[in-house]
Design a protein that fits this description.
Blueprint lengths: L6 E7 L2 E8 L2 E5 L1 E3 L1 E2 L9 H6 L5 E3 L1 H6 L3 H6 L3 H5 L5 E3 L3 H9 L2 H6 L10 E5 L4 E4 L6 E4 L1 H11 L3 E3 L11 H25 L5 E6 L5 H12 L5 E4 L7 H13 L7 E4 L4 H9 L4 E3 L2 H7 L2 E3 L8 E3 L19 H5 L2 H10 L2 H27 L3 H10 L6 H4 L23
Parallel strand pairs: 4-15, 5-6, 6-7, 7-11, 11-12, 12-13, 13-14, 14-15
Antiparallel strand pairs: 1-2, 2-3, 8-9, 9-10, 16-17
Helix pairs in contact: 7-8, 8-9, 9-10, 11-15, 12-15, 14-15, 15-16
């Protein structure tokens, strides 16, 4: 049995919990958002900068790091922490989502109803009980990934939390296929638990992954099966539905079937309202590409629920606007620059725009999670949720009570405010 003692719940508000995840590289206060360091870096930022924003854990991508530079190479460089200069906790995914996306299509393609955007240079060759054979998107070489190889890669990377190998089934797959796939994922989990008990790095936690698609009975059965497997934590993965209401219903079913003492991770959950819903359902940590992906497309996170929490700074209407992205935001983009300047940078394809918007979006997420955590601790979650829905948070008084100072290049000390002049 894997280590099941790495999590402490210290406060509750209904089903929501605030606690601490204990790992070999330090503590993670929960609920927490985990930025993606897909290929060993949070895009556009140094590891020290991400830590200065207040984040305590990053997610590394097993599949991509297996392809390049290779797990053995990372191990020879001292492990992923040393390799990327991040000395705090790391969670690594199993590689299942990426390898199966080559066969099923990505989530974005699924929701758009299109499969045409799939990469043609990497593809699944076969799926069987042993694992998955596929062609590398990098060089076309045939590769294999299964329960034991996935965990061996994650052991070589030296992550604090490893995820069991699973098949990530999308929304458009049939119920019959989803049921058979979920049972195979459970059998793979048993192999992962056995391998992990014998070979895992000291202190590494293993999370099993709840699958079952959008089918309540399959999700409930999977949640119970993972909880009984001996894994030290639980991640909720796969397609969570085509709409937010369906996603939240799936999360509700899955979390109700889990034991209280195990830490819970929500895979691919990153919209502010979804994070609030997940926290209310008792999920402890979340990861998603949203903050950095939006930054690469010239889009900033803002406290505006009616606009899906986004503003597209590449729009013509932003061209000569002299206000900051968000009043009260302490990030360099808001302190030093106008929307008009950021519009210019984004339209010109300047990398500075990506960097500034990544900092802004991650600070938004850090403050949001700080506010949610404090609200659970002080039993004011409903009031915080109301403020968030009004657009008063995460730059309002409730979050300010929980915030940590921002220490990144370009962030001045002193009172928070907007852009000081045209740039």
């Amino acid at each position: 049995m894997t280590d099941r003692s790495g999590f402490e719940i210290r406060a509750r508000a209904g089903r929501a919990r605030a606690g601490v995840l204990l790992t070999p590289h330090g503590e993670v206060r929960t609920p927490a958002f985990v930025p993606l360091a897909t290929t060993g870096a949070v895009k556009g930022l140094q590891a020290a900068e991400v830590e200065a924003l207040g984040f305590e854990m990053l997610l590394g991508n097993t599949f991509h790091l297996l392809i390049r530079p290779g797990a053995d190479s990372v191990a020879r460089m001292g492990g992923l922490h040393e390799f990327m200069g991040w000395r705090r906790p790391i969670i690594t995914d199993s590689g299942g989502f990426q390898v199966f996306s080559m066969g099923h299509g990505t989530v974005a393609e699924e929701l758009k109803g299109s499969r045409a955007g799939r990469r043609s240079d990497g593809r699944v060759l076969s799926i069987d009980e042993e694992g998955v054979r596929f062609r590398s998107y990098l060089d076309g070489e045939e590769r294999f990934l299964g329960p034991e190889t996935s965990l061996a890669v994650q052991a070589a990377l030296g992550s604090d939390v490893a995820l069991a190998f699973d098949e990530c089934t999308p929304y458009h797959i049939s119920r019959d296929y989803t049921a058979h796939s979920t049972e195979r994922t459970h059998r793979w989990l048993d192999r992962c638990v056995e391998w992990h008990a014998r070979h895992a790095p000291a202190g590494q936690l293993l999370y099993g992954i709840v699958q079952g698609g959008v089918y309540d009975d399959l999700r409930e059965r999977s949640a119970r099966r993972v909880a009984e497997s001996g894994a030290g934590g639980v991640a909720i993965g796969g397609s969570l539905g085509r709409e937010k209401a369906q996603m939240r219903a799936v999360l509700d079913v899955a979390t109700r079937s889990l034991p209280e003492e195990l830490p819970r991770h929500g895979l691919g959950i990153g919209d502010p309202d979804d994070l609030l819903a997940g926290v209310r359902l008792g999920i402890d940590t979340f990861d998603c590409a949203t903050p950095t992906r939006l930054a690469r497309h010239g889009t900033a996170l803002v406290p505006d629920p009616a606009a899906r929490w986004r503003v597209d700074l590449t729009r013509a209407s932003e061209r000569e606007r002299r206000e900051p992205i968000a009043a009260g935001c302490p990030c360099p983009a808001c302190r030093e620059h106008t929307r008009g300047y950021l519009h210019y940078l984004a339209r010109a394809g300047e990398l500075t725009a990506v960097r500034l918007l990544a900092l802004h979006n991650l600070i938004f997420m850090a403050r949001l999670m700080d506010g949610l955590r404090l609200a659970v601790e002080e039993e004011t979650l409903d009031a915080y949720a109301d403020a968030l829905e009004r657009g008063d948070e995460p730059y309002g008084a409730a979050t300010s009570a929980a915030r940590r100072p921002v220490a990144v290049a370009g962030a001045r000390s002193g009172s928070e405010g907007g852009a000081g002049g045209p740039t």
